[in-house]
């Protein structure tokens, strides 16, 4: 059953606990009024969007408690409460609100801290104009689906399922992630909010299987091409032989003891031992290796088959 159908059925049966608004609300948190207005100007391109502002994390939490927004965009460095602390508090108290972290210091360390703290996305300020509007639209759509499906999915605790991703269609990945997050959450495998981190690793594995595995798009292309050119190449390969007929196979096994995700593509594979360490000083600006590094940072165990076209991610049940 498609996620859209589930959402429709759920709405008929259960009234959403989230207050209905005329338009989605985005809370922009930044101690710089100039940066606040810059972000607001970028988002004015999105119709039917209400923008609110807060000068720091403390003020933002007060606003969120009074009336939760649909999305939070926060600066990293702020007085009184920085963006990472705000991320942790929002993730703990309002797990259905996605958070985007923005900063002028675009380092791998900040990106890792953002992911560990629960950020759904990380954007360096120099890239805001190019990336933020589309990212906001995507997250608002996903967040709405998440709220609609949450009450239905909370009934699932144990599962042993197999999925097949055809046509290298990455638009179905968010639905699989939502399903997996709900099962992790209801099985109480992770600490509160930890299912989102596990799903970040799962998303990396899924996108790697499509981009690098089936379509054989190397990480170097991301460094050489801008986003538009890379997207054009991605869509072109989806229609070309031999790439177009390849599939991704996903096995999800979740119980109260732990979770195992196995992702296999139909590409030629690779040797994970030859992937450079992205944390090494000479590789900090490189894209190659970041996905594997993120998966290993967020999961308890990551292993590949001999061919390198199948990866298994394991998340063990948290200690009592």
Structural write-up:
The protein has 320 residues and is of the alpha/beta class. The chain folds into two domains: 7-147, Rossmann fold (3-Layer(aba) Sandwich), CATH 3.40.50; 154-316, Heat Shock Protein 90, CATH 3.30.565. It has eleven helices and ten strands. It has helices spanning 3-13, 33-43, 57-66, 83-93, 108-117, 128-153, 173-187, 194-214, 219-224, 227-238, 290-298, and strands spanning 25-29, 50-54, 71-75, 99-103, 121-124, 159-165, 248-254, 258-264, 301-304, 310-316. The strands form two sheets. The chain has a five-stranded parallel beta sheet with strand order 2-1-3-4-5, with helices on both faces. Helix 4 links the parallel strand 3 (71-75) and strand 4. Helix 3 packs parallel to helix 4. The longest helix is centred in the middle third of the chain and has 26 residues, at 128-153. The radius of gyration is 20 Å and the shape is globular. The two termini are 35 Å apart. 33% of the residues are buried. Mean pLDDT is 82; it is low at 1-20.
How much strand content do the residues show? 15-25%
Order of helices and strands: HEHEHEHEHEHEHHHHEEHEE
Q: If you compute it from the alpha carbons, what radius of gyration comes out, rounded to the nearest whole angstrom?
A: 20 Å
Global mean pLDDT: 82
Through-space gap between termini: 35 Å
Let me know the largest β-sheet. 5 strands, parallel
